[in-house]
Design a protein that fits this description.
This protein is an alpha+beta fold. The protein is built from 6 helices and 10 strands. The structure holds cobalt (II) ion.
Length: about 240
């Protein structure tokens, strides 16, 4: 597999976004908001998802490709904030940078828990590394925008997806501390893409019919290749 095949949602897309004034404003706003992180005393949310009290994963991590069923599996809330979790987040950043990504969700590396990492700069040592444990959407902005997305689990596939341009969320950090944060621009875009992964939703599920039609053949080819390598696997094919 060549580097370019792995280069989904690459730095080029991030750079393109950075050139836009909206993204630059968003970055400035994000930095302000990050400085303003605050702990919240909200009560523990009732959720219908299981809670993981023990994290199990093995290095080295590798990004799963569509249509691996683990991308559609239920992701457990994280109930343990230990060294294993910190190490997982660290390894996820490594894999993400290696594959030229700007965001990665735990199910993409075969760990079905509610954890995501992202860095809009897409480069180690640049930008801001954000780790969200058990994130929840508090509200989505009314205005929406179209933006070309890629996904590390879909090498070579890029397509426009419409999403709200702002989102307010709450989450926990690696120590279990709760906080709320408002995102807009590119970080809001990345967050929503990764958040979908935590709900087993993939970016083509969000594409408009005409956009999906443009990538359907590539998706079917990935499905066929997966079934050839994994005979009898239960996969969810593109509609
Ligand atoms: Co993705």
């Amino acid at each position: 597999m060549t580097a370019s095949q792995w280069a989904t949602w690459p730095a080029a897309v991030a750079q393109r976004a950075e050139r836009g004034s909206v993204a630059v404003q968003a970055r400035n706003r994000l930095q302000d908001l990050l400085a303003d992180l605050r702990a919240e005393d909200t009560e523990e949310e009732e959720n219908n998802v299981p809670v993981a009290t023990k994290l199990e994963w093995q290095a080295p991590l590798a990004v799963l490709q569509y249509p691996d069923p683990r991308l559609r599996a239920v992701n457990a809330r994280i109930g343990v904030f230990d060294e294993t979790l910190r190490k997982l987040a660290e390894e996820m950043f490594e894999v993400m940078y290696q594959d030229d990504g700007v965001g990665l969700a735990a199910p993409q590396v075969g760990v079905n828990v509610r954890l995501m990492v992202f860095n809009e700069a897409g480069e180690k040592g640049k930008g801001e590394e954000i780790v969200l444990v058990n994130p929840q959407v508090i509200n989505l902005g009314k205005s929406k925008n179209l933006f070309e997305e890629g996904c590390l689990s879909f090498p070579g596939i890029y397509a426009d997806v419409e999403r709200p341009s702002k989102v307010k969320i709450k989450a926990q950090d690696l120590n279990g501390r709760k906080f709320t944060i408002s995102l807009s621009g590119f970080p809001a875009r990345i967050f929503q893409h990764e958040y979908d992964h935590l709900d087993g939703r993939l970016f083509h599920d969000r594409m408009a019919p005409g956009v999906l039609a443009g990538v359907r053949q590539q998706l079917v080819e990935m499905e066929d290749a997966y079934l050839k390598a994994n005979p009898g696997a239960q996969i969810q094919r593109v509609a």
